[in-house]
Amino acid sequence: MATSIPLDRINASTSDLEQAESPYAQEPGQSVAPTPVRSASPSPPIPDDEREVQSLPPADRGRDAWLFLLGATIIETTVWGLLNAVGILQNYWSTERFPGDEATVTLATSLMNGLSYMSAGFFGPLFAAFPHQTKIIQIAGLVVSTIGLIASAFVSNPSQLIGTVGIMFPFSAALYLPCATMIYEWFYEYRGRATGIMFAGTGVGGTVFPDPS
């Protein structure tokens, strides 16, 4: 024979079970403070006059682009023009300064040209690894190569030419290499004209530097 359970006992048991399973269950008579709900308010927009917007100088035109081309052409003329005229120096060193020791002089001038071309394999990754130090590397190359070139005028034996013009002067490639790469950033429409002007400095230097006498 089935027995009936009062409805009020079922409701009381259900209420006790929900209170036991709830993580916020409290003792009778205690009140729980409501959790404040924070409204997500968007951050105020930054005024346009307070934003730091750094625009790049225009390519193919403007004072900065043509000043870069002028400086790059002067560097091209100085560095590679002297390398193209090194035969005059070799003849002078071999016949007037150190006659009878042409082998050492030839080694020095060969290192001067060879290391200048090969140094791109060293300075290229260096500039790529430290792009923000480009000017510092250029200045260091300028200082080292200038010291080597000036010191070559005071050497007392041909072996010293190996250290001065053969090893120290090729550091001038650190001064020149960024000019050959950054010209593609300064010029787009007139890139052919700009590179032609810059590389023409090699021929100009090779023509002007040798003594016409």
In short:
The protein has nine helices and no strands. By secondary structure, it is an all-alpha fold.
Helix and strand run: HHHHHHHHH
Poorly predicted ranges (pLDDT <50, ≥5 residues)?
20-25
Q: Which percent band covers the strand fraction?
A: under 5%
- The N- and C-terminal alpha carbons lie at a distance of 137 Å
Number of helical stretches of at least 4 residues: 9
Number of strands: 0
How is the main sheet built?
A: none
Organism: Apiotrichum porosum
InterPro entries: MFS_trans_sf, Proton-linked_MCT
Protein name: Major facilitator superfamily (MFS) profile domain-containing protein
Transmembrane segments: 65-83, 103-124, 136-155, 161-184
Could you list some keywords that capture this structure?
213 residues; mainly alpha; elongated
Describe, in plain words, how this protein is organized in 3D:
- The structure is a single chain.
- This protein has 213 residues and is mostly helical.
- The protein has a domain at 63-208.
- It has nine helices and no strands.
- The chain has helices spanning 7-21, 63-84, 86-97, 102-118, 120-129, 134-151, 159-168, 173-186, 191-208.
- Helix 3 (86-97) runs antiparallel to helix 4 (102-118) and helix 5 packs across helix 8.
- The protein is elongated, with a radius of gyration of 39 Å.
- Mean pLDDT is 81; it is low at 20-25.
Write the layout of secondary structure elements.
Layout: H1 7-21, H2 63-84, H3 86-97, H4 102-118, H5 120-129, H6 134-151, H7 159-168, H8 173-186, H9 191-208
